[in-house]
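Late entry, iron/sulfur cluster complex.
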Amino acid sequence: MRLLLHICCGPCLLFPIKRLKELAMPVTGFFYNPNIHPYMEYERRIEALQTVARLHDLPVIYSEKGYGLRSWLQSVAGNMDFGKRCLGCYEMRLLETAKHAKVKGFTHFSTTLLYSRYQNHEAICRIAEEVAQKTGIEFYYEDFRRGWQEGQEMAKELGIYRQAYCGCVLSEEERYEKRRLRLEKGLRPDNP
Ligand code: SF4
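Prediction complete; structure with ligand written out below:
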């Protein structure tokens, strides 16, 4: 078994890589996230990932497609609402991971998106199974959400950058709009 693990960011990698190492699974990371905006945020998340990868001696392939604002916008055009646009966003990243896995001789693919409590876990699994059917690369599933708290604590201890929004420019707007509304109601903001 050779696993190519799609990595969305450093903090979300911490628990899954600990777990996969416990299982002695040969893992290579794959960074392809055209959904992260703006450019400096993209760079910041890569830096955090590099810190975690060094710590775990994890080889990581960075997609040669790089920062993908335009391709991401095209993929969600006409479907901008939260929830709906996320389906295309998951599909885009998982399909690229599985295709890359196929070309490079990996047997399985998976994703650190399975760690997040804030993602649509069921949709990710469904789309990953569809991608597996299309590409012939098996999807490795594990519910990494059980390590949520542990992963958060590891990220704090390491002092790596922990983002306040999912990734796309729309999620950034939603995040800070929610914050503004809380402040207007006299509530404490739930995040800086
Ligand atoms: S909110 Fe997150 S998952 Fe949804 S479209 Fe934006 S970046 Fe992708």
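The chain has a mean pLDDT of 95. Will revisit in the morning.
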